What we know:
By secondary structure, the protein is of the alpha/beta class. The protein has 16 helices and 8 strands. The longest helix has 37 residues, at 22-58.
Amino acid sequence: xxxSLDDDPFAQYLAPPSDETTEQKEQxxxxxxxxxxxxxxxxxxxxxERAALKNSKKKPVKVLLLGQSESGKSTTLKNFQxxxxxxxxxxxxxxxxxxxxxxxxxxxxxxxxxxxxEMTGVSPFDAADSDVSDEEEQPVLPRSSETLRFxxxxxxxxxxxAPLRRxxxxxxxxxxxxxxxxxxxxxxxxxxxxxxxxxxxxxGRQQEFFVRSLHSWQDGDSPDLSTRMLKHREASVRDAxxxxxxxxxxxxxxxxxxxxxxxxQKRRVTLEAGPGFFLNDVERIAAxxxxxxxxxxxxxxxxxxxxxxxRIKFETASAGPTQGSxxxxxxxxxxxxxxxxxxxxxxxxxxxxxxxxxxxxxERLAEDRRVNRLEDSYMLWKAVCGSKLLQKTQMILFLNxxxxxxxKLRSGVxxxxxxxxxxxxxxxxxxxxxxxxxxxxxxxxxxxxENRPFRVHMTSVIDTKETAATLxxxxxxxxxxxxxxADLA
Length: 489
């Protein structure tokens, strides 16, 4: 049995007053018609936004990662993959094993090189390996002010770890062969290694291996590989695992040796602050059954030359409305010789993530020893902010390597000794990072063609959990910018 209007309190609430006048009725009907119009308009906007979001998933979001060499761009890319594209990340993770083994071997060989020079007084690099011309001044590597007491144990460790020198070349070949090319070496060491290994400005002579961007080193079945080369590569990888396992105890012993640690301290070499450091994980990585962890891959170091393009399809539900969309992220070379390649990628760019390593306030560029690295980041930021091509582009600043800044300041390095304007402010990471951030903010305000918000994040991109939270904020900003570009937000 149906209910009458009198029995329905909601209907009674909506019913017009019984004493409604003709004028009041016209006003009510007009208001209801306006409400329906607004409701229909909102429904239409929601429909358009859903369609726009669907279309935006078809058109990739384009993001550029900019910053000087060794600013953390590649590590940021890894964090994007780990956070939002875990299936693709998991599929590629095992391929990093050889790179991590190479990093570990390079760590040990760095110690062996320094140990050889301390024990014999002769550098392990001969003139043929040097990247310094005969006409250039070759300063002497800073030596210990105290005599180091080396024993037969150190000589024996050097001898037993000698196979790692050849192994490093074999691993470099294996990685280079994966990309269809032989191992390649740059003309100069990277800025990070220069600063870590030679703090007084000496040019390092050991050159760092890299692969080119036009090949995929992770594709072990590259059609460019001959059967003979592929077999040699597989054999090299197998042999590397056995040699590293056999040398595990000696690698651990030489790293933990008190005299070696004293040598590194006196020479101001901080390997643990450099990229691709794994000496604290020797036992785990040297195991024959070793499989890389997520953190291992994020920390791994492999230098690539040229522009890197990465397609990331957002797989996880945590991506929110971005789930299912595809982003194109470009890591464009940060060294001075690579920066001319930036301009073509500015076109149709949705956002720029600019990485500035603030731990390097006391370091110099490898490409030009006259230029302070922090000042170089300021100049790059000024150029990007002032570009009319990018005046509509979202700018997000990562003040990166805050963990290394904290380590450096705790070791006694004072900001005011290198940045005079810092004055007598407290020499701690919070004060220093805020001071540097304000300078970047001032540059944006003075040089941006249009007023735009200053978005800055203090980061340590090897901290995957903290970086994931930061990327969550960043992807929301970029997605909104992408919709605004379509005039739909």
